[in-house]
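Q: Second attempt. The first request was missing the SMILES, so the protein and pyridoxal-5'-phosphate are both included now.
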Amino acid sequence: MVLRDVWLARKRIESIVKPTPLVYSEFFSERSGQPVYLKMEQSHPAGSFKIRGAANKLLSLTEEEKKRGVTTFSTGNHGIATAYAARQMGISCTVCISRRVPEAKLSRLKRLGADIEQTGAGQDEAAVRCRELASKYGMTIIHPFDDPEVIAGQGTIGLELMEQLPELKEVVIPLSGGGLLSGIGFVLKKMDPTVSVTGVTMERSAVMQASLKKGAVVKLEEEYTLADSLLGGIGEDNRYTFSMTRSLMDKGVLLQENRIKEGLYSLLDHHKIIVEGAAAVGAGYLLDQPVSEGPVVLIITGNNVDTNTVKTWMDS
Ligand SMILES: *Cc1c(COP(=O)(O)O)cnc(C)c1O
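A: Got both inputs this time. The predicted holo structure:
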């Protein structure tokens, strides 16, 4: 991957993806002792930054590939983003999900016009079905993170940040499969290698951070967390994001559940935004983390919540 790929991505996706605001946070600036800004990636119509990578991947397909359609197995923000972008481009999209996926998600995907293949008891079975469809019908699999076009799409956030706040010194990024961190980190470090990249994950089932520690991909049991969008493995056959995260991340943080909750509440109280747990890990981290050099940017990643989710926060 080279920097030009990210500029190409930006040009490709500009009709589908609008730049997001960068907002100064008086509250987090006071708490951390340095100017803090929020990058509002929850403000995309599809609810998360995932639209950037999904749109770039779809737009980079050949006409022949577009005709054969695409498939994916993520039911979270990536599935939603892929279905949303595919509909805009008239590409047929099949989302493979397990029978366990809740009705709310199912109906959201249906409303986006995606074909649904429901099979098996868990995500792994859905992934198997997805690969079957790909080999049987020639559909292209749109991977949630481990794909250069997806990483380049997420990297367009880095280009926007350099324009909006060229003096930034640190960026705090929620970390799961690492596509987001790889894309933003790649762009910022190319522009200035001294920009510091911090990756934040919940303490439970933090697969990427455990893998980095071990020096090889590990598998972990998925446990309940408020930051559900950060769950999931990084793939035993990981080709890009494991090594990119290893070389780009300066600091890895693991966050307890109560801190994620405090992050959520702070964003609601002081910024009047409702986001999901995964999007609030950076806020939770900065709540009592003195910072020596700023400005700092928090990437606010998504808002895939409903009233039931909010009830769970209150009860947890
Ligand atoms: C996917 C996602 C992340 C993590 O992105 P990765 O590229 O998998 O590291 C963070 N927050 C939200 C809301 C997401 O949907």
